Amino acid sequence: MPSSMGSRLNVGGKDVSNINDTGMFRSWSQDEDYIFGKAFGTMPHRSNATIKYTEDTPPYTAPEIIYTSSRTMGKNPNINLQYNLTWIFPVDVGFLYLVRLHFCETQLEVTLENQRVFRIFIYNQTAEEEMDVIHWSGGNGSPVYRDYIVLVPGKSQTKQGLWLALQPNRDVIPKPDYADAILNGVEIFKLNQSDGNLAGPNPEPPMMGLSSTSLEPEKKTAPKNNLSPIMIATGIATGALLAILINICFLAHYQRRRKRSDESGTSLAKSLWVPFSKKWRSTDESISTLPLELCRYFSIVEIKAATNNFDRRLVIGAGGFGNVYKGYVDSGSTAVAIKRLNPSSKQGTREFWTEIHMLSQLRHVNLVALIGYCDDQDEMILVYEYVARGTLRSHLYGNDNPTLTWKQRIQICIGAAHGLNYLHTSAKNMIIHRDVKSTNILLDERLLAKVSDFGLSKLGPTSMSQTHVSTVVKGSLGYVDPEYYRRQKLTEKSDVYSFGVVLFEVLCARPALMPSLPKEQVNLAQWAKKCFHNGTLEQIVDPSLRGEIAFDCLNKFGEVAETCTRDRGIERPTMRDVVWALQFVLKLQENAVKNINVGHGVEDVGCVGLDTGGTQASPSNPRGEVTASDFDDLFSSRGRVLDSRSTWEASSGGKSIQMGWNNSISNSKDESKSGIDQNL
Prior knowledge:
The chain has three domains: 3-268, Jelly Rolls (Sandwich); 296-385, 2-Layer Sandwich (Phosphorylase Kinase, domain 1), CATH 3.30.200; 403-620, Transferase(Phosphotransferase) domain 1 (Transferase(Phosphotransferase), domain 1, Orthogonal Bundle). It contains twelve helices and 30 strands. Helix 7 (406-425) runs antiparallel to helix 12 (575-597), helix 9 (492-508) packs antiparallel against helix 11 and helix 10 crosses helix 11. The radius of gyration is 30 Å and the shape is elongated. It starts with a strand and ends in a 6-residue tail after the last strand.
């Protein structure tokens, strides 16, 4: 049962040619192309470090240059605790893999045990809970390696991402000195079947947990000066063969079990709970490998059963990814939405794995939950919770769905804003959605909004010094942030712009782009902002809402949308500010309806589409206006942005109103202050 080489990396270092290897003629590549996201960590290098090989780790294990170079997470513990240092290796499904990790502490500050302790995850499984290089190697400058056998299940001749991730472990007692992790080298070998096949798919075996093995190179029995490369190669082959033989019994067991399955007429193509780490910390603390309880692997047999072999009558949506089917799993007890990748789609494998990695770690009432996935027989499929009422757009125009009331629309916008705010602030790393639009906001039976489709999502800046992520522009026409389009620099404010377009879409019930209209009206955001500044916004409101929206509510809603869609990102609010402002908009509408109900009449409130002459006076508001104590002009075009992230200033009636993270109100006349609870 021989093996084939998959990857051999000099982590944190340069390429190493075979002539510079320690007699084994191996080539080592740089690791940068395999790193996931923008979190590259740092690369400490001590070329003058003395590498002290041992009997357990002889010189032919790896050349010195592998151990003198490394990649760590950096010196900032706050940043390190907010991300995983992650690599992705494309591998063939249906095979066992030997993953060898090389370690060596050469930094002068790490000389004792329990100074740097970290977790290792391989293929979403916990390989080591408390990896302490000094403990395993015996001291600074002494190299050590660890071997792991992992099964990548599947039948089809496709590739899948084998994830390797490092995470600081601060749960050890006593607490380690550094919140950091380190890696020097990686080798990945594909182990073949007993028939010598290294290319074809294996019969799908039951999932086997990750196992750490003791694949030690053969100990030298001859003096050093008599040790030839041939003897070394023989020793390596012998040691590897011993370890590989351990796994033959597993494969024999798999074959027997499959044979029994075929004879009994049952199928082994059952979905498997991928054995992810049970030491997972919740998403409000960490972005880690996929947690055990959150992501399920489905076989293609189950998917076909759930969709009646992809019956077109079950199609409930379509997009750049492919068709979305309604299906049932778990013996028909659970309704799900099944998104099937179209092989001709421009979106492909990268978006597929991006969505799995990101969405499986997120749980929020306003985000669509990923239940599981299928990567089997050349099919890439995502399985989500079923959201009964479909897209927000289908409830605004182009469909026979009942018309949404104005209050329902505001509540839907608040829910979607909560979801985006969670992505920007509450996940371990900031996540930028990059494709916010009305078709990616779904509504459940209670009209609760859920943000969906994370295929284009991107991790935001991963350090305090970063303000943006440089990336190729992606998104949907009409929703793309113009500043992002011009500069190709992505920030969370790009999502804010797209959400502002959705707000105008909700108000006007028309698409973001309508090429058939006159030129100035083609782009909804530009047209609506022009109407807002001209004081004619009510003229483009959805006709079904005429007479329903209070004037003050409309003005504030327009201000929020206008501010979100400003050309410069620095002038836009954060999603947290947007959530707060929309809640204020809802309060304005509810107060207007309340005034009607207590007998003041519609004329006392003033509604769009009725000739009331604007907001009228009432006993509690003799001037007929929303006062500063109600946070008037918070998002007004008259307001002046003080801090693009949190602080706004506007003036009304001699009062200066400021909103920051503490959202306090200051009155220039009496300096009174009041705090606002912002536990959103």
